[in-house]
Specification:
By secondary structure, this protein is mainly alpha-helical. α2 crosses α3 and α7 packs antiparallel against α9. The radius of gyration is 28 Å and the shape is elongated. The chain folds into 2 domains: 134 residues, Arc Repressor Mutant, subunit A, CATH 1.10.10.10; 108 residues, no CATH class. The strands form 3 sheets. A 3-stranded antiparallel sheet has the order 1-2-5. It has a two-stranded antiparallel ribbon with strand order 3-4. A two-stranded antiparallel sheet has the order 6-7.
Length: 300
């Protein structure tokens, strides 16, 4: 049942929806999530959640946001990537199991408390003071790099993806088949090496003394020191070279070393590019080469 609004009615609870969102080319889901984050920002401001630079940040886990909006977590991730590319939010990782910090950004021509800041998109700062210029100075190098990349309009992401789609022969099935063959060869070679080393340890050379219960009791019950070294080296090599599945669709194959190296080198954009590559693999639109090499080229 509904009723008319008149002078005696109070306004219902509502989300802050900035007018500049009406002019941006964003999906409705991204605009709604930005309004939800802006509403959560008011709570962070009230609780004085700010970093050492005075920037207000908020914490809103993806699963919780998906539950509040009754949408999938993957839809929230896509909207986060869309807002990040538009420069409306910035996420900062604070640990492996800790949720990301989210910073709300506004367009450069948006006035705050009677002020109009130009030149860069400014973060929302406690009390809306004039320390936004300090933030610009700290991030000027990153902004300049992005500006230089935009000047080179020829090798765009669209052109790269178009070129990749032309090569339809090396499909995901072929890539996986090659990986399974290489993995099988590696396992067989490792097992063969282990059997050879074990035979050499048990049989020994003709010049070795014969078996004696008094002298060889320890050798029969435990591996030799040389065998310990062989087993440890083999286990370490397998751990470093074995691949695991990452990405939104669980189809980006990376070693632990590759994942750690790329995540440390590009902490701000690596998760988004990982999900982007995962979507391209799902659509069978990648070349026949290791996923780590593709990611490294996209990030560089």
């Amino acid at each position: 049942m509904t009723q008319y609004l008149d002078r005696t009615n109070a306004m219902p609870e509502y989300l802050p929806y900035p007018r500049f969102l009406l002019k941006l080319s964003l999906t409705p889901a991204a605009k709604l999530i930005y309004a939800m984050l802006l509403d959560r920002y008011t709570l962070s401001k009230k609780n004085n959640w700010q970093d050492e630079e005075g920037h207000i940040y908020l914490v809103y886990p993806i699963d919780k946001l998906a539950e509040d909006l009754e949408i999938s977590a993957s839809a929230v991730k896509r909207s986060f990537n869309e807002l990040t590319e538009a420069g409306l939010i910035r996420r900062s990782r604070k640990g492996f199991s800790s949720p990301n910090r989210i910073y709300i950004m506004i367009p450069e021509d948006t006035a705050l408390v009677g002020q109009k800041k130009s030149g860069y998109a400014a973060p929302i700062i406690a009390g809306c003071e004039n320390n936004w210029k300090d933030w610009v100075g700290m991030h000027e190098a990153a902004i300049k790099v992005e500006s230089d990349r935009m000047k080179d309009t020829e090798p765009t992401v669209i052109k790269v993806e178009s070129d990749r789609m032309k090569d339809t022969e090396p499909t995901v099935i072929k890539v996986e088949s090659d990986r399974m063959r290489d993995t099988a060869q590696t396992v067989i070679r490792v097992e063969s090496d282990r059997m050879r080393d074990t035979e050499q340890t048990v049989i020994g050379s003709p010049d070795e003394p014969s078996y004696s219960p008094q002298t060889d009791l320890h050798t029969d019950t435990q591996p030799t020191p040389n065998q310990y070294t062989i087993n440890n080296n083999t286990l370490n090599n397998l751990t470093q070279t074995s691949e695991r599945a990452y990405g939104e669709f669980g189809n980006v194959m990376l070693t632990e070393a590759e994942y750690g190296e790329l995540n440390d080198a590009y902490p701000d954009i690596f998760p988004a590019m990982l999900d982007f590559l995962s979507a391209r693999i799902r659509d069978k639109a990648i070349p026949d080469e290791p996923h780590g090499a593709i990611l490294r080229r996209m990030l560089e």
